[in-house]
Amino acid sequence: MTTTWSTMREVQPVATRMLQNSIVKDRIAHAYLFHGPKGTGKQKASLLFAMRYFCEQAEDQYSEPCYECSSCKRIQTGNHPDVHFIEPDGQSIKKDQIEYLQKEFTYTGLESNQKVYILHQAEKMTTNAANRLLKFLEEPSRQTMAVLLTENIGSVLNTILSRCQRIQFHPLKSEGMYEQFVGEGIPESTAKICAALNIGLDEAKELSQDGWFAEARRIVIQLIDKVMNPKEEGYLFLHQVWLNHFQERHQQELGIDLLLLWYQDLISYHLNREDMVVLTDQLDRLQQYQYTISLNDAKTCVYELLQTKRKLAYNVHNTLAMEHLVLQLQR
């Protein structure tokens, strides 16, 4: 489904209005920082904004790009020569990536003097990379625009924050997301999970058709059974099964998120709020374990899971982080 300002306005009305106003009033800033949780439309908005910036057929009084010209189509497919994308190389965005970008920007644009760079996960820049980027932001060119994307604005250097126009993307309402997902043919159980985790429509569709995700959900429940039963070997299961399945960083984070959902559902069950349970196929297990783990213990487990997410974000080794987590969940 093509992303337009109209569809963006339905989920992010304030951010969309700010971006459209900057276009209509010809007050496009040299640098923007799109910040907000995962799945709130930051990446789609950055591409839409870039399309409008380069669109060959958009009329001045309208802020919608045409979606049909050569520039619009190439930006949508990631092939425009004057739109550059920077993503983490491994666990971070490194100094040499920014230096390469600087070198590219010393050349005249291939089709015009306009250039845009979109930097994903800006919070993962090393200090040296961030300091290099400041040169762009301190010496802006009228025809150069930067769009930085982040889920964690608190980890972006203040010197960079002060030089960007901030556009906040708010968490989406899970009820509306769930209805949208089901309407797109995504199974209800997967739709509930994706809506609760603020996962975007495209990724939700991929997960619904991915055997890896179905297996991930099964392994999460198996791990919970292991740590809940003192006779089971949760530590052994971690090494024999969990670590082999959740290998990539995004997979590891998704595994933690699924565990979080289960323990949050247990808290809801303790509070007699079954209407808030996301993993509705786990009601029998929740009923069983409410006698094994108290409300306070469930809250402690949620805290430990959030701590593990933070450790992974700060590049603590996944095996060490998960070993510590399993020990804490078994107590």
Summarize the structure.
This protein is α/β, with parallel strands linked by helices and 331 residues long. The chain has 2 domains: 5-168, Rossmann fold (3-Layer(aba) Sandwich); 210-330, Zinc Finger, Delta Prime, domain 3 (Up-down Bundle). The protein has 16 helices and 5 strands.
Notes on the protein architecture:
This protein is of the alpha/beta class and 331 residues long. Helix content is 55%, strand content 8%. Strands 2-3-4-1-5 form a five-stranded parallel beta sheet, sandwiched between helices. Strand 2, helix 5 and strand 3 form a beta-alpha-beta unit.
* CA-based gyration radius: 22 Å
Query: What's the CATH topology label of the largest domain?
Result: Rossmann fold
Based on the coordinates given, report the CATH architecture of the largest domain: 3-Layer(aba) Sandwich
What percent of residues adopt helix (DSSP H or I)? 55-70%
Structural class: alpha/beta
Flag low-confidence runs. Answer: none
**Overall average pLDDT:** 89
CATH C-level label of the largest domain: Alpha Beta
Oligomeric organization of the protein chains: single chain
Number of domains: 2
Strands, total number: 5
Write out the strand line-up for the largest beta sheet, numbering strands in chain order.
Answer: 2-3-4-1-5
* C-alpha geometry: globular
| Series of H and E elements | HHEHHEHEHEHEHHHHHHHHH
Terminus-to-terminus distance: 47 Å
At the fourth level of CATH, the homologous superfamily of the largest domain is P-loop containing nucleotide triphosphate hydrolases
Query: How would you characterize the largest beta sheet?
Result: 5 strands, parallel
DSSP helical segment count: 16
Strand share of the residues? 5-15%
Protein name: DNA polymerase-3 subunit delta
Keywords: Nucleotidyltransferase, Transferase
Pfam families: DNA_pol3_delta2
Organism: Alkalibacillus filiformis
